[in-house]
Amino acid sequence: LVVILDFGSQYTHLIARRLREVHVYCELLAYDTPAAKLQALNPKGIVLSGGPSSVYEVDAPHMDVAILDLGIPLLGICYGLQELAHHLPGGAVVAGDKKEFGHATLTLGVGGGTAPSPLFDGFPPAFTAWMSHGDKLASLPDGFAVLASTANTEHAAVGDEARRFHGLQFHPEVTHSDHGTALLRNWTRSVCGCAGDWTMSDFVEEAVAHIRTRVGNGVVIGAVSGGVDSTVAAVLLQRAIGSQFRAFLVDNGLLRKDEVAEVVARLHDKCGVSLTTIDGAETFLSRLEGVVEPERKRKIIGNTFIDLFDAEASKVDAAFLLQGTLYPDVIESVSHKGPSATIKTHHNVGGLPAHMKLQLIEPLRFLFKDEVRALGLVLGIEAASVGRHPFPGPGLAIRILGDVTPTRLAVLRDADAIYIEELRAAGLYDQIGQAFAVLLPVKAVGVMGDCRTYEEVIALRAVETSDFMTANWFDLPTPLLRRVSTRIVNEVRGVNRVTYDITSKPPGTIEWL
Ligand code: XMP
Asked: Which domain of life is it from (predicted)?
């Protein structure tokens, strides 16, 4: 176990993620966790995270200084380093005359006669790291040596090898820092003596134990969509508490071809999740009749979802609600505090009626998408399911421009299924972030056989993206486009034209609505 004491940096969870990547189990605790509690946990090392404060401010967050006497290796990152320097004799922190943000070149062993540190085993003499700080060390604590410097920062990496205290002014946890993961691996192996044999299977054990303790004899309800996050969360809950977990699939009539049957097969038949399907198609479609405006569609779908879920779920005497929240959702909701323009309101189960008074269970809260996929595989969910592209809560209603009718839904379902089938057959599906078909609100003239046609138009979309905040349109091979177009026009009645969307995000969004 490695403990991370959180001083409030936006990167703290990335430290946890990197430690998991180097197969070390870690827990995140509040910065002021008492030394006695830490000692009882017996961690092999403690990371002091970065944070937005300055150690010399009156109300700055401080650790329990008794931690310095536990004999446990400490690694201070940015604010964490300053915290070490603030409390250790000889050290001092001041406001730097220059703030340093962005890339900087670190040179090992410069600036004060240094012994080689195991932290930098296997490193080149100079490498790039990500800096983000305004304060700096004015003097080193007694016993410390400089391990690396930048042009601006003499004390970019410092250490007292005897006490196993290290400090980094840069952020090894962000991907902009070269060799950051290697540095954390070196620290956990050579300094802390971690075996580095933690795996996702261990995560399952820990999560299961944690859920059981929290839930006791209570009942947990949750909505599943067939998407990766809710699927993995549901299977994990089933693993932990069996039939004390009740899942609900709201069939809003806006799902893709065969999707309801697939979700039931996957979650209920294969994984034993206690699953109730709520047949809401008619309610949703009648409420959507004649609605064209995208935000109105979203609102109606969101509200109808809550109505139906609430009506069914209130029959269960539940104390907890499962949500498949991931870490990036958590960061998004806390870091954008200021008023920012609403481009689209994303619907999820967030706004349940207050009378439900359920406590949230969010077992994926600290994981990133790729970790959730890895967890899904460990839980025995097949690769094709955990690798599925995201699908929006409002479903096909935001991929049908104009009126959402049963006929138009059927057209889009068939076209989309052909497109996805061909992408999978070409081995391209997994290289694409998201791909789908869109039904446009226009009709076009064509000629089929000897007849004039006047029919619907399908647009195909495929994007590559790392975070769905920005995306590039995917350069699909022409023979594939030709095949998909021919098949859609031949096989889907009511479509006579297929186009390919070559707009990136920005300026486009990924969905058309
Ligand atoms: P945009 O279209 O905003 O999409 O570039 C970014 C990602 O969000 C998904 N998306 C939604 N997901 N409810 C959801 O659950 C929504 O209303 C919604 N709108 C967009 C979209 O599929 C893409 O992955």
From this structure: Eukaryota
